[in-house]
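hey can u check if this looks right to u? its 156 residues, i copy pasted from the old doc so theres a chance i mangled smth
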Amino acid sequence: RRFRNGGRRVAKGLHIKRKSIKACQGKAMEITKIIEKNRDAVVLVDIQKPREAGQMQVSIRGTGFIIDKKGTFITNAHVYKQIKQDELEYAAASLPSKIDEKGLTHYERFPIKLLKIDEENDVALVQIISEREDFKTIEGIGDSEATTEGGISFGR
């Protein structure tokens, strides 16, 4: 359904102006570049539980991004809360380690521990347990003070 101001209704009660759609399309290209630039700083929060015959049951719960060289990362609180008490010993952060000749990405897993959680704001601070101090970090986090309501803040 079209509205008089040129916008469009995308769901019951949700109306997006045409300018917003074009702005989002431009942001999508920008977001793709940001993700590719920071891919080594993005972690997969996963569970790998052993099964019979040496098999592993893998479940990816979410993602996060590394904020310091010692492996501290931020994820959503709901991602961490999905990990059941009896799964904590199998929880880890998986990071891209290499891409093989077939173009497949291989991951290195590290155990993790929760440092702080803020359920109200849906943020968790988690530590990779490792002696390494050379983890890649996300490049520049955007200025949230300069972002307008409904806007998106990304690093540059």
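Strands lie at 8-11, 14-16, 42-50, 56-66, 72-75, 91-99, 105-118, 123-128.
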